[in-house]
Write a structure and sequence with these properties.
Largest sheet: 5 strands, mixed
Number of strands: 44
CATH superfamily of the largest domain: YVTN repeat-like/Quinoprotein amine dehydrogenase
Distance between the termini: 7 Å
Strand content: over 45%
Helix content: under 10%
Structural class: mainly beta
CATH architecture of the largest domain: 7 Propeller
CATH class of the largest domain: Mainly Beta
Length: about 525
């Protein structure tokens, strides 16, 4: 978490007071990838926990139909994909096309759309084209003014983020021998260090990296058939790794050249689909799958500079269709079996697979770890805040974020995005933004009263300070402005909330000059 100082000179009675603000800045100003900046569904930021009144009203709510693709946020724009024919600005009807679309993050207004595929429709073919809202599924990646999109039928595009213009495009089927699996592609591309990574599902050397500048192939390696799972980037034992969930197992390669780091063969036979991404926590890697498959964990050990994956446990009850868990302090939190809208939110011990607690009616949706809390969207569209604790389920807040649940036409199977305290949620019928940010603090210039000083603390937005923030506030003073903030002594004066601001009275004003700051825990 980043901290900042803002200093303000205040001359008075022959000495100078300098008031400082030790504020907490958002660690995630953007959400450029599927499941966030670190590919792991986590944010070090904070959220407003007072879920009442205006915070439960959307900043904007727009119709955005036909797709279970998720959201990314970058440069003041929200990116996603939809399926259908564009009938008017921002409006689509079900048909056999795919578009990457951009919305204005501030207003939700439609900015542009670019056709990325002319598909053959989405499986379920027995239902007929136009009767399902299940596609497309892959999430765009936003990076440095560009958007990278992998379509259902394996067309890889780089688009201009400002206007959607195609910078380059390549067909993984016709150009590299790839093939489209049942239910088509759902995996998102992954971008790092000038490369975009995909599994092209080619018969040989299927894992590929392309140059982001011109779309040229940089490397291809490993004979691994694709699933619907998005790969993840992580660092294990000091080595940067790109980890795929393939049809045969978990496969980790060096992202610079595709060389194999390690492989863990699935403890089951592959069946139909794996839709969840691998979860990496320290030296453990977890994967869950549905149908006749299981959940399992491996530990990556280092021996003579060689990494190996050692099986730790398997569990058939921890199955999940596509909802990827998050990891926190040795535990997994995620949405698991049953495979319907009543699916459970569970806390699982990562070392053993033991369930610590479980609660029903979350369904097949998504969650994020924000600080020490879980931000969840249920399949039926409720936004829920839950403490990431292991002893029991503890709900902190809940409200309906997406209206009008329908199992076929309006369900929240889409992963959320979080940027500067703004939560972006999507269903197969709507997209919405909610402001759950925590207003920053401002320390006013000190007021000299006789031989004492009064300090006033307020929010940067002018909104009333929430009383639940008072217990975490600390006011510090020092005669040495260059001293590390953690070494500044804490004031013992009472902090009193009055008229929406905090007052600290009877602060010692005797020479030498003092410097003041207010801080909150991260």
């Amino acid at each position: 978490m980043t901290r900042t100082h803002a200093r303000l000179p205040y001359p008075s009675a022959g000495w100078v007071f300098v008031c400082g603000l030790l504020g907490v800045l958002s660690a995630n100003a953007e959400w450029p990838n599927y499941r966030g900046p670190n590919h792991d569904g986590t944010s070090a930021g904070r959220l407003n926990q007072n879920w009442s009144g205006s915070v439960t009203n959307p900043v904007w709510l727009v119709h955005l139909t036909n797709g279970v693709t998720s959201l990314t946020v970058s440069g003041g724009r929200v990116f996603t994909q939809v399926g259908g024919d564009l009938v008017e600005e921002g409006a689509f009807q079900l048909a056999r096309k795919e578009y990457c679309v951009a919305l204005n993050a501030a207003t939700g207004n439609f900015l542009w759309s670019t056709e990325t595929d002319a598909s053959d429709g989405y499986l379920f073919p027995h239902l007929g084209v136009g009767t399902t809202d299940d596609g497309p599924r892959s999430t765009p990646v936003a990076r440095d003014g560009s958007v990278y999109v992998l379509s259902s039928y394996l067309k890889l595009h780089r688009l201009n983020a400002t206007n959607g213009a195609v910078i380059w495009s390549t067909n993984l089927v016709t150009g590299f021998g790839g093939s489209v699996i049942a239910w088509q592609n759902a995996a998102s591309p992954v971008v790092e260090n000038g490369l975009v990574f995909v599994n092209a599902n080619a018969p040989t050397a299927s894992l590929m990296a392309f140059n982001i500048t011109n779309g040229a192939l940089v490397w291809r390696s490993q004979n691994e058939l694709m699933t619907h799972a998005t790969p993840v980037l992580a660092t294990i034992h000091g080595a940067r790794q790109l980890i795929f969930a393939t049809q045969s197992g978990l496969v980790s390669v060096n992202p610079t050249n595709g060389a194999l780091w390690w492989k863990a063969v699935h403890p089951f036979g592959y069946s139909t689909s794996i839709g969840t991404s691998p979860v990496v926590h320290q030296d453990h890697v977890f994967l869950t799958a549905n149908y006749t498959m299981n959940a399992y964990a491996v530990q990556i050990v280092l021996s003579n500079d060689v990494q190996m994956a050692l099986p730790r446990w398997t569990n058939a009850t921890h199955r999940s269709h596509w909802s990827t868990p998050v990891a926190h302090e040795g535990h997994l939190y995620g949405m698991f079996y049953p495979d319907n809208a009543d699916g459970q939110l569970r806390c699982i011990d990562l070392a053993t697979g033991t369930t610590r607690w479980a609660t029903n009616y979350f369904g097949r949706s998504s969650l994020l770890l924000v600080g020490t809390n879980l931000l969840c969207i249920t399949e039926r569209g409720s936004l829920v805040l839950v403490a990431a604790q292991t002893n029991a389920y503890r709900e902190l807040g809940r409200f309906q974020a997406i209206p009008g649940y329908h199992s076929d036409r309006n369900k929240c199977w889409n992963a959320m995005a979080l940027s500067d305290g703004q939560v972006y949620v999507r269903s197969t019928a709507y997209a919405a933004r909610y402001d759950l940010s925590v207003p920053g603090l401002v320390l006013d210039p000190p007021r000299l009263t006789a031989n004492a000083v009064q300090l006033n603390i307020r929010t940067a937005t002018g909104a009333d300070l929430d009383s639940n923030r008072l217990a975490g506030m600390e006011v510090r003073a020092s005669t040495n402005v260059d001293l590390a903030p953690a070494l500044w002594p804490k004031l013992t004066n009472a902090l009193v909330l009055t008229n929406g601001m905090v007052q600290v009275t009877n602060v010692d004003a005797s020479p030498p000059r003092r410097f003041f700051m207010v801080s909150e825990p991260e």
